[in-house]
UniProtKB/TrEMBL annotation:
Catalyzes the reduction of sulfite to sulfide, a step in the biosynthesis of sulfur-containing amino acids and cofactors. Belongs to the nitrite and sulfite reductase 4Fe-4S domain family. This is assimilatory sulfite reductase (ferredoxin). Residues 99-161, 347-411 form the Nitrite/Sulfite reductase ferredoxin-like domain.
Length: 562
């Protein structure tokens, strides 16, 4: 980590500050359209209007404040109308960009799914979403092409198997991350499954936290690989053992990417498992009460944490919210392994195996999700997981069935032993469905890794290539070895075409850093394969023994990377 307690300046509460819309300081008057929308009606209240009104009136009968605001509290965003080019994204009004269909996000906290749940998710995609689904890097599953008339029936089917879309989006506690192999691997620090479930059950969907300044991303994990990427979450509980050997959590606050990326900072406390839910609620309350609401682009907790520093955050946490001190705690151990995706075959502590496999940049058909559910029943015990790298895992596979499962998955292009490029490539939703996107991402990322497999067939070093459709970093381009941020680029003929700004050498874990970018350096969409090949060949020629790509980039001359 790049920051620790005491490394950031602490601002006292007596220091004059411009009003930032902080409730705790008395600034409750709504200061922007989003805050007025939430004042007028809590986002959770839209559920009943969907059931009672909008499912009958259809898309044209939806109130604008609900359509482009509160419906997010139920996991619903209007999707981008087809055929609108990326150059129009910043020009058109929301109502001109949107289609009469919705993206719907299913909340799958910790990525844990039974075969019955996965089969239901797959069936809904096939019947209501044109057989399209995305496994996201937040362990959720997203639908597209959803009609408002079908939402009540979709909710009914999800709720029958214990799933929901509540607060999957909006200014709320979003889906929480946990290691997909929690409770399974012998070397985990501890299993966060129960504390996460307790926190979700108590607070998700509660009006207590249904009006936060912005989104609130949580991870709770005892994974030795830090697979939930706690460095870039708003609040993270990271497995650690104290000096007495007791397992608990190291608390990190204030990570986030988008246009102002920041790494989380350690608060410096040791949180016992039985304290997690209360500490999470206290941290969330600080965000609710002290978060900056005046300007939406500064409403994430990373900005508050940057101003306060960990010492003041701890003081407010203990004195104003917990009303008792927390013990000092040690820093979590660095990640054990470089790759955090749990792809491949891993031994479970009960002697069975977890089999992780790569999708096609998270894009999948509902029929294929149903098939994966069938395979989980046939080869395991019906337990599946999603990962934070847009991958999936089937648990509980006996030794003698592993290779048969590997072959069965490969029949559907689901690879347990993918190439470095297939394994390391991620992509956001992109221009196809997202109103914020500037470029298409999903298919381009698939074409890119397929082309690199042909050009560099022997490349076997871990390499992360993240393809993002806009500056908002849903695919985390700043933390990738090669990160592509979508933008319009002028090609050799002078035409404006889809392209990317390049970020190189992003890295999490020890000495975490965001990728290097070079002024004015962009590539067109058509040039990305050539660019990757050129830079990666340079790495293979110049690398030192054992040197990873990110370390090479850190010392590389600029000319090597252009």
């Amino acid at each position: 980590m790049t920051a620790s307690p005491g490394t950031s300046p602490t601002r006292t509460s007596n220091r004059p500050q411009r009003a930032q819309g902080q409730w705790a300081l008395g600034y409750r008057e709504p200061l922007n359209p989003n805050e007025r929308m939430k004042r007028d009606s809590d986002g959770l209240e839209v559920r009943q209007r969907i059931l009672d009104i909008y499912a009958s009136t259809g898309f044209d009968g939806i109130d604008a404040g609900d359509l482009r605001g509160r419906m997010r509290w139920m996991g619903l965003y209007t999707q981008r109308a087809q055929g609108i080019p990326g150059g129009k994204t910043a020009v058109l009004e929301p109502e001109e960009l949107e289609d009469s269909y919705f993206m719907m996000r299913v909340r799958t906290d910790g990525g844990s799914l039974t075969s019955a749940q996965l089969r239901t998710i797959g069936g809904i995609s096939t019947e209501f979403g044109r057989d399209v689904a995305d496994v996201t890097d937040r362990q959720n599953i997203q639908y597209h092409w959803i009609r408002i008339e079908d939402v009540p029936e979709i909710w009914r089917r999800l709720e029958e198997v214990g799933l929901t879309t509540t607060e999957a989006c909006g200014d709320t506690p979003r889906g929480m991350l946990n290691c997909p192999l929690a409770g399974v691997l012998e070397d985990e620090v501890l299993d966060a499954t129960d504390v996460m479930a307790q926190t979700v059950a108590k607070y998700v969907g509660s009006p207590e936290f249904s009006n936060l300044p912005r989104k609130w991303k949580t991870s709770m994990s005892g994974c030795v690989d830090h697979c939930t990427e706690p460095e870039i979450d708003d609040v993270s509980f990271v497995g650690v053992r104290n000096e007495a050997g007791e397992a608990g959590y190291d608390l990190w606050i204030g990570g986030g990417l988008s246009t102002n990326p920041m790494f989380a900072q350690r608060v410096g406390v040791f949180v016992r498992p039985e304290q997690v839910t209360d500490v999470w609620a206290a941290c969330t309350s600080i965000f609710r009460d002290y978060g900056y609401r005046r300007q939406r682009n500064r409403a994430r907790i990373k900005f508050l944490m940057a101003d306060w520093g960990p010492e003041r955050f701890r003081q407010v946490l203990e004195e104003e919210y917990l009303h008792h001190p927390l013990p000092d705690g040690p820093a979590a151990a660095p990640p054990k392994h470089e790759q955090r995706d749990h792809v491949g075959v891993a031994r479970q502590k009960d002697g069975a195996n977890a089999v992780g496999f790569a999708l096609r940049t998270g894009r999948i058909a509902g029929t294929l999700l149903t098939r994966i559910a069938d395979l989980a029943d046939e080869y395991g015990q019906g337990r599946t997981r999603t990962t934070t790298q847009q991958k999936m895992v089937i648990l509980d596979v006996p030794d003698e069935r592993v290779e048969d499962l590997v072959s069965a998955l490969a029949e559907h292009d689901l690879l347990v032993r993918p190439s470095a490029f297939r394994r390391g490539t991620m992509a956001c939703t992109g221009l196809e469905f997202c109103k914020l996107a500037i470029v298409e991402t999903k298919q381009h990322a698939q074409d890119l890794y397929a082309e690199l497999e042909k050009r560099l067939p022997d490349f076997d070093e871990p390499i992360g290539i993240n393809v993002n459709g806009c500056p908002n970093s849903c695919a985390r381009f700043q933390t990738a070895d090669i990160g592509f941020k979508g933008s319009m680029v002028r090609d050799d003929s002078g035409e404006m075409v889809e392209g990317f700004q390049v970020h190189l050498g992003g890295h999490l874990g020890v000495e975490a850093t965001f990728g290097r970018k070079f002024r004015g350096h962009k590539v067109t969409k058509a040039e990305t394969a050539d660019y990757c090949e050129r830079v990666l060949r340079g790495y293979l020629e110049r690398r030192e023994p054992g040197e990873r790509f990110a370390a090479y980039v850190a010392r590389a001359e600029e000319a090597w990377l252009l």
